[in-house]
């Protein structure tokens, strides 16, 4: 258990992939405009790997990478939903899709736009994004 955090559970559409994540009940979600996030409407919040646990479905995940191949875009082989992934900005953490969380554990969501079209500049100028995966 993590002080001041709540346990969220979630997963893909078909239920083959399930996870739990410890995070605030008040989520800080990034809305990125890079090519893949735009196509997938990928909005996500970032947590350290130590606060994420895959409960089931490891064998049902597949991964897509492109460009630098640092981001690991995992998704369910059955329904195609990406409920979490490893972001380029935080390769030691996870980006969690808030819309894949089960109802009841989120109080508020604040969304911040990030200019992923100019990824290097945006991450360099952002004051906290690189540290979001630190415990």
From TrEMBL:
Keywords: Metal-binding, Zinc. Pfam families: GFA (PF04828). Residues 8-120 form the CENP-V/GFA domain. SUPFAM superfamilies: Mss4-like (SSF51316). It comes from the Eukaryota. One of its GO terms (molecular function) is carbon-sulfur lyase activity. Belongs to the Gfa family. This is CENPV protein. It comes from Rhinopomastus cyanomelas (Common scimitarbill). The lineage of its organism: Eukaryota, Metazoa, Chordata, Craniata, Vertebrata.
């Amino acid at each position: 258990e993590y002080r001041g955090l709540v346990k969220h559970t979630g997963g893909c559409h078909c239920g083959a992939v399930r996870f739990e994540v410890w995070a605030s009940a008040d989520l800080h979600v990034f809305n990125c405009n890079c090519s893949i996030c735009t196509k997938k409407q990928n909005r996500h919040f970032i947590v350290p790997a130590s606060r994420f646990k895959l409960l089931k479905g490891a064998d049902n995940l597949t991964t897509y990478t492109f460009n630098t191949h640092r981001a690991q875009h995992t998704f369910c082989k059955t329904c195609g939903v990406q409920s979490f992934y490893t972001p380029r900005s935080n390769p030691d953490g996870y980006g969690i899709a808030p819309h894949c969380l089960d109802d009841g554990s989120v109080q508020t969501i604040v969304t911040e736009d990030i200019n992923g079209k100019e990824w290097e500049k945006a991450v360099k100028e952002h004051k906290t994004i690189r540290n979001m995966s630190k415990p």
